[in-house]
Amino acid sequence: MQGHWSDPGRRIGRMNPSQKTGREIIAAARPGSLSAFPEGESMENHSASTMHAFPDADRAAVYQAIFNRRDVRGQFLPTPVPDDVLSRVLMAAHHAPSVGFMQPWNFLLVRSDAVKQRVHDVFQQANDEAARMFPEGKSEVYSRLKLQGILESPINLCITCDRSRSGPVVIGRTHIPTMDLYSSVCAVQNLWLAARAEGLGVGWVSIFHEKALQEALAIPEHIVPIAYLCIGYVSHFKDKPELEQAGWLPRLPIDDLLYFDQWGNREAGQDAPLCDALREMQAGIQQDQVYPR
Ligand SMILES: Cc1cc2nc3c(=O)[nH]c(=O)nc-3n(C[C@H](O)[C@H](O)[C@H](O)COP(=O)(O)O)c2cc1C
User: Fold this and answer.
1) In which element (H, E) is residue 157 found?
2) From atom 20 of ligand 1, which residue's Cα is the shortest distance away?
3) Which of 111, 94, 101 is nearest to 217 (CA)?
4) Fewer CB atoms inside 10 A, N or C side of the chain?
5) Tell me, what DSSP letter sits at residue 82?
6) Please, what sign has the CA dihedral across residues 163, 157, 64, 289?
7) C-alpha 123 chain-centroid distance
Protein backbone atom coordinates (compact mmCIF):
# COMPACT_ATOMS: atom_id res chain seq x y z
CA MET A 1 0.00 0.00 0.00
CA GLN A 2 2.73 2.41 1.01
CA GLY A 3 4.59 1.58 -2.19
CA HIS A 4 1.56 2.63 -4.17
CA TRP A 5 1.35 5.97 -2.45
CA SER A 6 4.97 6.76 -3.04
CA ASP A 7 5.13 5.51 -6.64
CA PRO A 8 7.69 7.84 -8.22
CA GLY A 9 5.97 7.55 -11.60
CA ARG A 10 3.09 9.77 -10.43
CA ARG A 11 2.76 13.15 -8.89
CA ILE A 12 0.36 12.72 -6.05
CA GLY A 13 -0.94 15.59 -4.06
CA ARG A 14 -3.43 18.39 -3.84
CA MET A 15 -2.91 20.69 -6.82
CA ASN A 16 -4.99 23.51 -5.44
CA PRO A 17 -6.57 24.01 -2.03
CA SER A 18 -10.18 23.72 -3.26
CA GLN A 19 -9.45 20.39 -4.88
CA LYS A 20 -10.63 17.34 -2.96
CA THR A 21 -8.13 14.70 -1.94
CA GLY A 22 -8.74 11.08 -2.82
CA ARG A 23 -9.83 10.43 0.75
CA GLU A 24 -12.34 13.29 0.55
CA ILE A 25 -13.63 12.01 -2.79
CA ILE A 26 -14.31 8.62 -1.26
CA ALA A 27 -15.78 10.16 1.90
CA ALA A 28 -18.10 12.30 -0.23
CA ALA A 29 -19.30 9.14 -1.98
CA ARG A 30 -20.38 7.53 1.30
CA PRO A 31 -24.02 8.02 2.10
CA GLY A 32 -24.53 10.16 5.16
CA SER A 33 -21.03 11.58 5.07
CA LEU A 34 -21.83 14.71 3.08
CA SER A 35 -22.63 18.12 4.49
CA ALA A 36 -25.35 20.03 2.59
CA PHE A 37 -23.01 21.18 -0.16
CA PRO A 38 -19.41 20.08 -0.51
CA GLU A 39 -16.85 22.79 0.09
CA GLY A 40 -16.46 25.15 -2.89
CA GLU A 41 -19.64 24.00 -4.60
CA SER A 42 -22.50 26.39 -5.28
CA MET A 43 -26.12 25.35 -4.90
CA GLU A 44 -26.55 25.56 -8.71
CA ASN A 45 -23.57 23.34 -9.40
CA HIS A 46 -24.60 20.95 -6.70
CA SER A 47 -28.14 20.59 -8.00
CA ALA A 48 -26.85 20.18 -11.58
CA SER A 49 -24.68 17.31 -10.43
CA THR A 50 -27.44 15.55 -8.52
CA MET A 51 -30.74 16.41 -10.15
CA HIS A 52 -30.69 13.48 -12.59
CA ALA A 53 -29.00 11.06 -10.23
CA PHE A 54 -31.00 8.12 -8.93
CA PRO A 55 -32.06 8.20 -5.28
CA ASP A 56 -29.33 6.70 -3.07
CA ALA A 57 -30.90 3.25 -2.71
CA ASP A 58 -31.50 2.91 -6.45
CA ARG A 59 -28.01 4.05 -7.30
CA ALA A 60 -26.62 1.61 -4.75
CA ALA A 61 -28.60 -1.18 -6.43
CA VAL A 62 -26.99 -0.41 -9.78
CA TYR A 63 -23.51 -0.65 -8.27
CA GLN A 64 -24.53 -3.76 -6.38
CA ALA A 65 -25.44 -5.46 -9.65
CA ILE A 66 -22.16 -4.37 -11.21
CA PHE A 67 -19.89 -5.41 -8.36
CA ASN A 68 -21.72 -8.63 -7.48
CA ARG A 69 -22.06 -9.87 -11.04
CA ARG A 70 -20.06 -13.04 -11.60
CA ASP A 71 -19.35 -15.37 -14.44
CA VAL A 72 -21.03 -18.58 -13.27
CA ARG A 73 -19.98 -22.03 -14.41
CA GLY A 74 -20.52 -24.53 -11.66
CA GLN A 75 -23.34 -23.45 -9.36
CA PHE A 76 -26.40 -23.78 -11.57
CA LEU A 77 -29.64 -25.17 -10.14
CA PRO A 78 -32.29 -26.88 -12.29
CA THR A 79 -34.97 -24.46 -10.98
CA PRO A 80 -36.95 -23.18 -13.98
CA VAL A 81 -36.69 -19.49 -14.85
CA PRO A 82 -40.18 -17.95 -15.03
CA ASP A 83 -41.11 -16.17 -18.25
CA ASP A 84 -41.66 -12.82 -16.54
CA VAL A 85 -38.08 -12.89 -15.23
CA LEU A 86 -36.67 -14.05 -18.55
CA SER A 87 -38.65 -11.45 -20.43
CA ARG A 88 -37.21 -8.66 -18.25
CA VAL A 89 -33.60 -9.68 -18.79
CA LEU A 90 -34.14 -10.15 -22.53
CA MET A 91 -35.78 -6.73 -22.73
CA ALA A 92 -32.83 -5.24 -20.82
CA ALA A 93 -30.55 -6.70 -23.48
CA HIS A 94 -32.74 -5.29 -26.24
CA HIS A 95 -32.40 -1.82 -24.72
CA ALA A 96 -28.64 -1.79 -25.01
CA PRO A 97 -26.97 0.99 -26.96
CA SER A 98 -26.14 0.16 -30.57
CA VAL A 99 -24.27 1.98 -33.28
CA GLY A 100 -26.70 3.94 -35.49
CA PHE A 101 -29.46 2.26 -33.44
CA MET A 102 -28.99 -0.74 -35.72
CA GLN A 103 -29.84 -3.26 -32.96
CA PRO A 104 -27.84 -5.97 -34.70
CA TRP A 105 -28.65 -8.70 -32.18
CA ASN A 106 -30.83 -11.77 -32.20
CA PHE A 107 -31.50 -13.90 -29.15
CA LEU A 108 -31.40 -17.64 -29.81
CA LEU A 109 -32.91 -19.37 -26.80
CA VAL A 110 -31.81 -22.98 -26.28
CA ARG A 111 -33.78 -25.26 -23.99
CA SER A 112 -33.44 -28.54 -25.88
CA ASP A 113 -31.13 -31.06 -24.18
CA ALA A 114 -30.13 -32.43 -27.58
CA VAL A 115 -29.04 -29.02 -28.84
CA LYS A 116 -27.21 -28.29 -25.58
CA GLN A 117 -25.38 -31.60 -25.94
CA ARG A 118 -24.34 -30.68 -29.49
CA VAL A 119 -22.99 -27.35 -28.28
CA HIS A 120 -21.23 -29.07 -25.39
CA ASP A 121 -19.51 -31.43 -27.84
CA VAL A 122 -18.33 -28.40 -29.83
CA PHE A 123 -17.02 -26.86 -26.60
CA GLN A 124 -15.29 -30.08 -25.56
CA GLN A 125 -13.32 -30.33 -28.76
CA ALA A 126 -12.13 -26.72 -28.57
CA ASN A 127 -11.40 -27.01 -24.86
CA ASP A 128 -9.16 -30.04 -25.35
CA GLU A 129 -7.27 -28.06 -27.99
CA ALA A 130 -7.10 -25.04 -25.70
CA ALA A 131 -5.51 -27.05 -22.88
CA ARG A 132 -2.61 -27.90 -25.16
CA MET A 133 -1.99 -24.22 -26.01
CA PHE A 134 -0.80 -23.22 -22.56
CA PRO A 135 2.74 -23.82 -21.32
CA GLU A 136 3.51 -26.67 -18.92
CA GLY A 137 2.20 -25.94 -15.46
CA LYS A 138 -0.56 -23.63 -16.69
CA SER A 139 -1.93 -26.36 -18.95
CA GLU A 140 -2.69 -28.63 -15.98
CA VAL A 141 -4.29 -25.77 -14.07
CA TYR A 142 -6.35 -24.96 -17.17
CA SER A 143 -7.60 -28.54 -17.45
CA ARG A 144 -8.87 -28.40 -13.87
CA LEU A 145 -10.90 -25.21 -14.46
CA LYS A 146 -14.61 -25.55 -15.13
CA LEU A 147 -15.28 -23.15 -17.97
CA GLN A 148 -18.92 -23.75 -18.84
CA GLY A 149 -22.27 -24.88 -17.46
CA ILE A 150 -23.94 -25.74 -20.76
CA LEU A 151 -25.71 -28.92 -19.66
CA GLU A 152 -26.50 -27.93 -16.08
CA SER A 153 -28.05 -24.52 -16.74
CA PRO A 154 -31.75 -24.60 -17.64
CA ILE A 155 -31.38 -21.93 -20.30
CA ASN A 156 -28.71 -21.39 -22.90
CA LEU A 157 -28.82 -18.24 -24.97
CA CYS A 158 -26.79 -17.27 -27.99
CA ILE A 159 -26.66 -13.52 -28.65
CA THR A 160 -25.64 -12.81 -32.22
CA CYS A 161 -24.74 -9.92 -34.49
CA ASP A 162 -26.32 -9.47 -37.91
CA ARG A 163 -23.72 -7.31 -39.60
CA SER A 164 -26.12 -6.41 -42.41
CA ARG A 165 -29.06 -5.50 -40.15
CA SER A 166 -29.69 -1.99 -41.43
CA GLY A 167 -27.93 -1.97 -44.80
CA PRO A 168 -24.34 -1.30 -45.78
CA VAL A 169 -24.06 2.29 -44.46
CA VAL A 170 -24.79 2.77 -40.78
CA ILE A 171 -24.54 6.03 -38.84
CA GLY A 172 -21.49 5.77 -36.63
CA ARG A 173 -20.14 2.62 -38.31
CA THR A 174 -18.98 4.34 -41.49
CA HIS A 175 -15.29 4.13 -40.59
CA ILE A 176 -14.93 1.44 -37.95
CA PRO A 177 -16.99 -1.52 -39.14
CA THR A 178 -16.58 -3.55 -35.96
CA MET A 179 -18.85 -1.15 -34.05
CA ASP A 180 -21.79 -3.46 -34.73
CA LEU A 181 -20.02 -6.29 -32.90
CA TYR A 182 -19.43 -4.04 -29.92
CA SER A 183 -23.12 -3.15 -29.90
CA SER A 184 -24.09 -6.79 -29.48
CA VAL A 185 -21.58 -7.04 -26.63
CA CYS A 186 -23.43 -4.16 -24.94
CA ALA A 187 -26.59 -6.26 -25.14
CA VAL A 188 -24.76 -9.11 -23.42
CA GLN A 189 -23.63 -6.88 -20.59
CA ASN A 190 -27.10 -5.41 -20.09
CA LEU A 191 -28.51 -8.91 -19.81
CA TRP A 192 -25.74 -10.00 -17.46
CA LEU A 193 -26.38 -7.16 -15.04
CA ALA A 194 -30.17 -7.46 -15.18
CA ALA A 195 -29.81 -11.21 -14.57
CA ARG A 196 -27.71 -10.55 -11.48
CA ALA A 197 -30.38 -8.26 -10.11
CA GLU A 198 -32.91 -11.07 -10.68
CA GLY A 199 -30.69 -13.55 -8.81
CA LEU A 200 -29.81 -15.37 -12.03
CA GLY A 201 -26.32 -16.55 -12.80
CA VAL A 202 -24.87 -16.11 -16.28
CA GLY A 203 -21.78 -17.76 -17.71
CA TRP A 204 -20.24 -16.72 -21.00
CA VAL A 205 -18.76 -19.62 -22.99
CA SER A 206 -16.44 -18.69 -25.81
CA ILE A 207 -14.29 -21.78 -26.30
CA PHE A 208 -15.68 -22.90 -29.65
CA HIS A 209 -14.70 -23.03 -33.26
CA GLU A 210 -17.07 -20.35 -34.49
CA LYS A 211 -18.12 -22.33 -37.55
CA ALA A 212 -18.86 -25.44 -35.48
CA LEU A 213 -21.03 -23.39 -33.12
CA GLN A 214 -22.88 -21.89 -36.07
CA GLU A 215 -23.52 -25.38 -37.44
CA ALA A 216 -24.71 -26.70 -34.08
CA LEU A 217 -27.26 -23.89 -33.89
CA ALA A 218 -28.06 -23.55 -37.63
CA ILE A 219 -26.82 -19.96 -37.56
CA PRO A 220 -26.27 -18.61 -41.09
CA GLU A 221 -22.72 -17.78 -42.10
CA HIS A 222 -23.25 -14.00 -42.17
CA ILE A 223 -24.54 -13.93 -38.57
CA VAL A 224 -21.80 -13.74 -35.94
CA PRO A 225 -22.37 -15.60 -32.67
CA ILE A 226 -21.21 -13.05 -30.12
CA ALA A 227 -21.90 -14.78 -26.84
CA TYR A 228 -23.06 -18.23 -25.84
CA LEU A 229 -24.54 -17.81 -22.37
CA CYS A 230 -25.56 -20.31 -19.72
CA ILE A 231 -28.33 -18.91 -17.55
CA GLY A 232 -30.08 -20.12 -14.43
CA TYR A 233 -30.58 -19.77 -10.71
CA VAL A 234 -27.52 -20.66 -8.66
CA SER A 235 -26.64 -22.14 -5.28
CA HIS A 236 -24.44 -19.10 -4.60
CA PHE A 237 -22.45 -16.33 -6.23
CA LYS A 238 -18.74 -16.26 -5.56
CA ASP A 239 -17.25 -13.13 -3.99
CA LYS A 240 -14.49 -12.82 -6.53
CA PRO A 241 -13.84 -13.94 -10.09
CA GLU A 242 -13.01 -17.63 -10.11
CA LEU A 243 -9.87 -16.99 -12.14
CA GLU A 244 -8.72 -14.52 -9.50
CA GLN A 245 -9.47 -17.02 -6.71
CA ALA A 246 -7.65 -19.77 -8.60
CA GLY A 247 -4.56 -17.56 -8.86
CA TRP A 248 -4.77 -17.52 -12.66
CA LEU A 249 -4.56 -13.72 -12.83
CA PRO A 250 -5.01 -10.90 -10.31
CA ARG A 251 -7.28 -7.86 -10.76
CA LEU A 252 -5.04 -5.16 -12.18
CA PRO A 253 -4.62 -1.91 -10.24
CA ILE A 254 -6.92 0.54 -12.02
CA ASP A 255 -4.54 3.44 -11.61
CA ASP A 256 -1.91 1.52 -13.63
CA LEU A 257 -4.40 1.51 -16.48
CA LEU A 258 -5.13 5.23 -16.42
CA TYR A 259 -3.37 7.65 -18.78
CA PHE A 260 -3.78 11.38 -19.13
CA ASP A 261 -4.27 13.26 -22.40
CA GLN A 262 -1.82 11.09 -24.29
CA TRP A 263 -1.38 7.32 -24.42
CA GLY A 264 1.21 6.24 -21.88
CA ASN A 265 1.29 9.53 -19.95
CA ARG A 266 0.94 8.74 -16.26
CA GLU A 267 1.57 12.24 -14.94
CA ALA A 268 -1.70 12.72 -13.10
CA GLY A 269 -1.43 16.49 -12.62
CA GLN A 270 -4.81 17.83 -11.53
CA ASP A 271 -6.13 14.26 -11.49
CA ALA A 272 -3.79 13.17 -8.71
CA PRO A 273 -6.64 13.13 -6.15
CA LEU A 274 -8.66 10.99 -8.52
CA CYS A 275 -5.78 8.50 -8.65
CA ASP A 276 -5.60 8.53 -4.86
CA ALA A 277 -9.32 7.87 -4.65
CA LEU A 278 -9.16 5.00 -7.11
CA ARG A 279 -6.22 3.42 -5.37
CA GLU A 280 -7.90 3.68 -2.00
CA MET A 281 -11.17 2.38 -3.39
CA GLN A 282 -9.46 -0.62 -4.96
CA ALA A 283 -7.59 -1.37 -1.74
CA GLY A 284 -10.95 -1.28 0.06
CA ILE A 285 -12.42 -3.69 -2.46
CA GLN A 286 -9.52 -6.12 -2.56
CA GLN A 287 -8.74 -6.16 1.16
CA ASP A 288 -12.06 -5.53 2.88
CA GLN A 289 -14.62 -6.11 0.14
CA VAL A 290 -15.94 -2.59 0.56
CA TYR A 291 -17.54 -1.61 -2.73
CA PRO A 292 -18.58 1.79 -4.07
CA ARG A 293 -22.29 2.43 -3.73
C1 LIG B 1 -15.84 -12.18 -23.99
C2 LIG B 1 -15.81 -13.10 -22.82
C3 LIG B 1 -15.63 -14.46 -23.01
C4 LIG B 1 -15.57 -15.32 -21.91
N5 LIG B 1 -15.44 -16.67 -22.12
C6 LIG B 1 -15.45 -17.50 -21.06
C7 LIG B 1 -15.39 -18.92 -21.24
O8 LIG B 1 -15.33 -19.44 -22.36
N9 LIG B 1 -15.43 -19.71 -20.16
C10 LIG B 1 -15.48 -19.19 -18.90
O11 LIG B 1 -15.50 -19.95 -17.94
N12 LIG B 1 -15.56 -17.86 -18.69
C13 LIG B 1 -15.55 -17.02 -19.75
N14 LIG B 1 -15.66 -15.67 -19.54
C15 LIG B 1 -15.77 -15.15 -18.17
C16 LIG B 1 -14.48 -14.55 -17.66
O17 LIG B 1 -13.56 -15.57 -17.39
C18 LIG B 1 -14.80 -13.74 -16.43
O19 LIG B 1 -15.63 -12.68 -16.80
C20 LIG B 1 -13.58 -13.17 -15.74
O21 LIG B 1 -12.78 -14.20 -15.27
C22 LIG B 1 -13.95 -12.24 -14.58
O23 LIG B 1 -14.80 -12.91 -13.68
P24 LIG B 1 -16.24 -12.36 -13.31
O25 LIG B 1 -17.03 -12.26 -14.61
O26 LIG B 1 -16.82 -13.35 -12.36
O27 LIG B 1 -16.06 -11.00 -12.71
C28 LIG B 1 -15.70 -14.79 -20.61
C29 LIG B 1 -15.92 -13.43 -20.43
C30 LIG B 1 -15.97 -12.60 -21.50
C31 LIG B 1 -16.23 -11.12 -21.28
Assistant:
1) strand 155-162
2) 241
3) 111
4) N
5) P
6) negative
7) 22
Beta strands 223-233 and 200-205 are antiparallel
**Atom of ligand 1 minimally distant from the CA of 243:** 21
With 90 as the cut, is the pLDDT of residue 201 above it?
yes
Residue-wise pLDDT tens digits, 155-191: 999 999 999 999 999 999 999 999 999 999 999 999 9
Domain boundaries in the chain? 2-66+252-288, 73-237
Q: By percentage, how much of the chain surpasses pLDDT 70?
A: 86
pLDDT, position 22: 56
Pocket of ligand 1 (CB under 6 A): 70-71, 73, 147-148, 204-207, 241, 243
**pLDDT for residue 241:** 96
What number does the ligand 1 atom closest to the CA of 206 have? 8
Give residue 258's pLDDT band: very low, low, confident or very high (50, 70, 90): very high
Roughly how many angstroms between the first and final C-alpha of the chain, as a whole number? Answer: 23
Task: Check residue 40 and give its pLDDT.
Answer: 60
Q: Which residue owns the Cα nearest ligand 1 atom 6?
A: 205
Distance (Å) from CA 121 to ligand 1 centroid? 19
CATH code of domain 73-237: 3.40.109.10
Mutate to test the pocket of ligand 1, among 206, 207, 208, 286 (most ligand atoms within 8 A of CB): 206
Predicted local distance difference test score (pLDDT) of residue 50: 86
- pLDDT band at residue 275 using 50, 70 and 90 as cut-offs: very high
**Distance in Å, CA 71 to ligand 1 centroid:** 6
